[in-house]
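STRUCTURE REQUEST FORM
Protein name: Arginine biosynthesis bifunctional protein ArgJ
Source organism: Enterocloster alcoholdehydrogenati
Requested output: structure tokens
Priority: standard
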Amino acid sequence: MYEVIQGGVTAAKGFMAASTAAGIKYKNRPDMAMIYSTVPCRAAGTFTTNLVKAAPVKWDKNQVTGGADAQAVIVNAGIANACTGKEGMDYCARTAAAAAESLDIKADSVLVASTGVIGMQLPMDRIEAGIRAMAPELKGSLESGTKASKAIMTTDTKHKEAAVQVVLGGMPVTIGGMCKGSGMIHPNMCTMLSFITTDAAISKELLQEALSEDIKDTYNMISVDGDTSTNDTVLLLANGLAGNPEITEKNEDYKAFCEALNYINETLAKKMAGDGEGCTALFEVKIKGAQTKEQAKILAKSVITSSLTKAAVFGHDANWGRILCAMGYSGADFDPEQVDLYFESAAGKLQIIKDGVAVEYSEEQATKILSQQEVTAIADIKMGTAEAVAWGCDLTFDYVKINADYRS
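Status: completed
Returned output:
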């Protein structure tokens, strides 16, 4: 079992963070962050499935798959460094070189990440100045980690971080993380950046496997607007400073590590879905009674990406026909005349349909349930025992306003 603790990327031993206002796009607010480990780390990563990949995604993928240790991550908000050609890749190299010089580490141990407007080139003078400003300000305090999580925000309204502690091999091990994401978020590495740090001693191969497996049920099960970003990146760094016996096989310690990692990833994923651009509610969809988990996932994703369903949640309208409709065009086979559907929130739980047909229910009670900040739709398709959960948000007027003038 793990214990939820306060903190984020600086919660684990040996990790520090800093942030600064570099003036990349935003004025009078921090827009750059640095994560640093006092010793080299084993690194794992997962990246966007969009064929149009930002330069930082290509850089990090090359570094992680190439086997190089990682010791620092440089993140900027405001400009995505996507669709920027060779110049964009050269800027990644310049960013790594500047960090290497400021931190006295190897350039190939520096990972980079960007989020913001696509197509604009980075102002490298400001990026390099930001790196020089952050290096002497690195601290391992929880406050510095929180400040870093705020510096990487774009249209986010809340910073997002989480941390847990778990005992592995008799030693306390910490996993912490921070992320940003509010729009251009859709399953399959949803713009979304997540940085996870741990002092666990674990092989690079198992670190990568743990991350790759876990994103299937966490980050890949969220959607805000159906758009898969060019910049999606999840990085997991492990520096081994906890002193636990190194995890080199899938034993009980590996299982416990994966459970703790899952808490971090699911918590951060839900924070992103619940902070979707302009949203007022986190919308959770649970599919029960499926034949396979894949069938349940397809159905759950179809519902959370339905614009009509998202609009109904915003209007606190128990328009269950939209949910059944979204399940019907998902591509997954099921019998609509066997479906039971419920709405649930802090205000209670209410059955809406039984065997595909509406039951008598109070519209007033349904509205109360759908008026909460977290709303769940539960659909039982009565075909088996498999389940899946997906997370999204409602669709509001403000989503259009935010994205109509995002570049200005």
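Reviewer notes: DSSP finds eleven helices and 15 strands in the chain. The first helix runs from residue 55 to 66.
Form closed.
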